[in-house]
Amino acid sequence: xxxxxxxxxxxxxxxxxxxxxxxxxxxxxxxxxxxxxxxxxxxxxxxxxxxxxxxxxxxxxxxxxxxxxxxxxxxxxxxxxxxxxxxxxxxxxxxxxxxxxxxxxxxxxxxxxxxxxxxxxxxxxxxxxxxxxxxxxxxxxxxxxxxxxxxxxxxxxxxxxxxxxxxxxxxxxxxxxxxxxxxxxxxxxxxxxxxxxxxxxxxxxxxxxxxxxxxxxxxxxxxxxxxxxxxxxxxxxxxxxxxx
Length: 244
Prior knowledge:
By secondary structure, the chain is mainly alpha-helical.
């Protein structure tokens, strides 16, 4: 935990430094008060912009290290606390044995856990980054499914009709058959969002909130960049935002 906390402090200091440089307020060496960049010197603004860009990169790297480190610590702790042995020892009721009641409780309980796990995979981006592989195929067949329940046609079946054909795949398809790219593209996109975000609210939201929120935020940032004349958003992110 200490390492990601240190990374968070580093990111915060670098971010504050970058913002000060971008605003034209540069504390000279050996002093604590701000001074204004001399705009009459053509080399001076360029020099401070380069330093600000490096500070932004340090802040982004620190943010990624913070999120990844705390996430790993949290996942490791949760995995240790939810082993089968510990869960059985902490059960709220008596051991049901191996009779019909135990089987009924197991079937209903497991299906309930599967439902909420699947739902979280669609509403939390760090879990969607894992589950997105299941939805990346543009053709529907048995090889793309992890589970084919016999009762699926009862609460979600929709017949395919010629008037409105079903479209499979992602909001913005990745157009590749490379298994490594398919398995990691959302992780890479998520960490890029964390690295380039301007504040911790956005950084945490890009990880914990749903992919739909991320696309909406991309749209907002694209609109802000267009209004200010900036071009900081990657073209593929802007395309994904517009497509969603």
